[in-house]
Amino acid sequence: MNDIILQTNRLCKNFKGQRAVHNVSLTIRRNTVYGLLGPNGAGKSTTLKMLTGMLKPGSGEILFEGKPWDRKVLHRIGALIEAPPLYENLTARENLKVRTTLLGLPDSRIDEVLDMVDLTNTGRKRSGQFSMGMKQRLGIAIALLNHPKLLILDEPTNGLDPIGIQEQRELIRSFPERGITVILSSHILSEVEQIADDIAIMAGGVLAYQEPVVPGQHLEDLFMEIARKHRKEGV
Prior knowledge:
Strand order of the largest sheet: 7-8-9-4-10-11
CATH architecture: 3-Layer(aba) Sandwich
GO molecular function: ATP binding; ATP hydrolysis activity
Pfam families: ABC_tran
CATH superfamily: P-loop containing nucleotide triphosphate hydrolases
Number of strands: 11
CATH class: Alpha Beta
Strand content: 25-35%
Order of helices and strands: EEEEHEEEHHHEHEHEEH
InterPro entries: AAA+_ATPase (IPR003593), ABC_Gallidermin_ATP-bd (IPR022501), ABC_transporter-like_ATP-bd (IPR003439), P-loop_NTPase (IPR027417)
Keywords: ATP-binding, Nucleotide-binding, Transport
Radius of gyration: 18 Å
Shape: globular
Domain ABC transporter: 6-229
Distance between the termini: 32 Å
Largest sheet: 6 strands, mixed
Structural class: alpha/beta
């Protein structure tokens, strides 16, 4: 169990009687990139929001480092879900200063995370003037401030150009070497396939596949087979 940082057991969530997530049991290995794939509406974001405390599970269990999840573990989890939480009239450094002040962290941590995401030389440029890729990296820097052991990223390459996607890919792949486990949610198979150690596929709110990446595997064929099956069955 020491190599497992997070598990969910039969996690469920309904909205107004409609099933969004049903009996999802994830197993996330420490210091890996875990790719959570699925078409839009598969339940990926709902699952991640439960892992970060943004939503309360309807039923099931979340274990972090072998212990039941509670809000105390949030200081060990960083997350970027939906749009980066930026003050667009502030610089990158000023955005981070707001957070270090709230978290009681030293200013030296600002320089550390700016270096990690390659935003050290943005100077007085306001974050509202950043490219989409730079905004995403600043959002990741904010998520990294509290020295998380687990980093959760929901669709981090959305809206990025090819250069931004390549930079994001290299950044994410570097985290396990720093002792940071990554859960990466996406519907872009090619991106996840290049950086993930383990892959899970959700469809219709259920976990349909979860295995280590196999070299030469035809992930697209597997994905389409699973997506079509669950669409046909209406689950």
